[in-house]
Write a structure and sequence with these properties.
mainly beta, four-stranded antiparallel sheet, 21 strands
């Protein structure tokens, strides 16, 4: 919210009030720590996606004002969640991204504790999932990849269809930070300091930096990885 921020520390979520510096704590309910946290668009509910070393972890959804447990989403991944986000288009939907070993992407009707869709997001480490600007669209990123998803209606029902981004002649990179532009294009960071502009599944532009002394000499916009 405008007056509070939160951060994860091990098995706890700490919520800090910016006005009076008071703190509230939400202790994890599973035994592997907290993997990700998300707020609903209206800031009424908070999802805490956890990790576990002994059993499949859960996503716990709390009423943010009271911190009362409201819903539990079960059996969405084997060992832990890397990312979770409420839909910006459908208030009943939430997306979650599982860690190793399954790397499952799941979409839920969270109010009814019902999994709508699930699909393996990738075969290596995944970092983040976000809903797109257009209904039914999602993006996941991770080790050496970005993947563009859509919830599509087929002859056999609703399915998740994912297209892997193609780096082409651009150097392959892990992707952590990205943002979707208003026209649907996506800008991502890289581990080597460049920014990439994606159109569809292809890199359209590599964003570089030039100097006033020599406008033709191009270099990476940043030194080191661009993660946020």
């Amino acid at each position: 919210s405008e007056s509070e921020f939160a951060y994860i520390t091990g098995h706890n979520l700490c919520i800090v009030n910016l006005e009076d510096s008071s703190q509230r704590f939400v202790r994890g309910r599973d035994d592997g720590g907290i993997g990700s946290v998300a707020m609903s668009i209206d800031m009424t509910y908070m999802a805490v996606a956890e990790r576990s070393i002994s059993s499949p972890p859960n996503i716990y959804i709390y009423n943010y004002a009271t911190m009362q447990l409201y819903r539990i989403l079960r059996k969405g991944t084997e060992r832990g969640y890397a990312s979770v986000q409420f839909s910006t288009h459908n208030s009943k939907h939430i997306a979650a991204l599982g860690c190793a070993p399954d790397y499952l992407l799941s979409v839920w009707d969270w109010r009814n504790e019902h999994m709508l869709l699930k699909c393996k997001a990738y075969g290596q480490e995944v970092f983040s999932v976000r809903w797109g600007l257009f209904p039914g669209m999602l993006t996941t990123v991770g080790t050496g990849h970005i993947r563009f998803w859509k919830m599509a209606t087929t002859f056999t029902g609703l399915k998740l269809q994912g297209d892997i981004g193609k780096f082409g002649a651009t150097e392959l990179s892990d992707i952590v930070g990205f943002v979707e532009l208003l026209d649907g294009k996506v800008v991502t960071g890289t581990e080597y300091g460049k920014l990439l502009l994606w159109e569809g599944v292809f890199v359209k532009v590599e964003l570089a930096r030039c100097t006033a002394e020599d406008p033709s000499a191009l270099s990476s916009p940043h030194t080191g990885a661009v993660d946020f």
